[in-house]
Design brief:
Distance between the termini: 61 Å
Strand order of the largest sheet: 1-2
Number of strands: 2
Order of helices and strands: HHHEEHHHH
Structural class: mainly alpha
Helix content: over 70%
């Protein structure tokens, strides 16, 4: 039980650190502050947690060979990123990120710059970050560590359920309008959609500025209508 809880706690920690890294990198790339990344509501990106856990388990024995460690970390994380993109697109019919405009990309799912970044991150993780985190986690008693892990696990599972259910609702509702111009219907339903999914839709589109796919076209239109609606309200209040 202790080992499982420790593993989950490391997963959450690395997912949170990945979230911070993504915020910094995305804000620099898009030249605007992006405070949310990923489709979960909480401040974590599971893909980073998975990559880091696998690297700490599989690549520790290559710690003293920096070149091999870098290459293996690059390959491992690239495979995970590619598979994650593929699976999410198949499930939700949405392309969450697209590197097609970058040089040396593979189907727009991975590219050389992000893969190299993962490789460098893997070296830093194995040599500095993981030993540092383990040093401080060992200060907790087993029972306290288990309690913290269970609480975080409950929060994570609830977040995952809410996020997936909301995404499925968006997918189902937007599928109704894929094959015809539904501008009027969308206007009529805007208030209803805003009340039900406004926060999540806005957060999702801010998290993935270049998100694409049939199911998101009408959602993007909804967001624009929502923003226009809010701006009109603000201008009326000022008057």
């Amino acid at each position: 039980m202790y080992n499982f809880c420790l593993l989950f706690l490391l997963f959450i920690i690395y997912s949170f650190l990945g979230y911070i890294v993504e915020i910094i990198a995305s804000s620099c790339f898009y030249r605007k502050l992006i405070l949310n990344r990923g489709f979960f509501l909480g401040p974590y990106l599971p893909i980073y947690g998975v990559c880091c856990i696998l690297m700490t388990i599989c690549l520790q024995k290559y710690k003293n060979d920096l070149i091999v460690l870098f290459i293996l970390a690059t390959v491992l994380c690239s495979i995970i990123e590619f598979l994650t993109s593929y699976v999410l697109e198949k499930i939700f019919k949405i392309r969450w990120w697209d590197y097609s405009q970058r040089r040396f990309n593979l189907d727009g799912r991975i590219c050389i710059t992000t893969s190299v970044s993962f490789g460098l991150g893997g070296v830093i993780l194995i040599h500095f970050i993981h030993p540092f985190i383990m040093k401080y986690l060992q200060l907790f008693s087993p029972i306290n560590l288990e309690i913290i892990s269970i609480i975080l696990m409950i929060i994570f599972v609830v977040d995952m359920i809410i996020s997936i259910v909301t995404l499925c609702k968006i997918k189902v509702s937007s599928n109704k309008y894929v094959n015809h111009d539904a501008t009027e219907e969308i206007k009529d339903l805007t208030n209803k959609i805003l009340k039900q999914n406004s926060f999540y839709i806005t957060r999702l589109l801010n998290a993935f500025p270049k998100i694409s796919g049939k199911n998101m076209k009408k959602v993007v239109a909804l967001k624009k209508l929502a923003n226009d609606f809010r701006q009109k309200l603000k201008s009326k209040v000022k008057k």
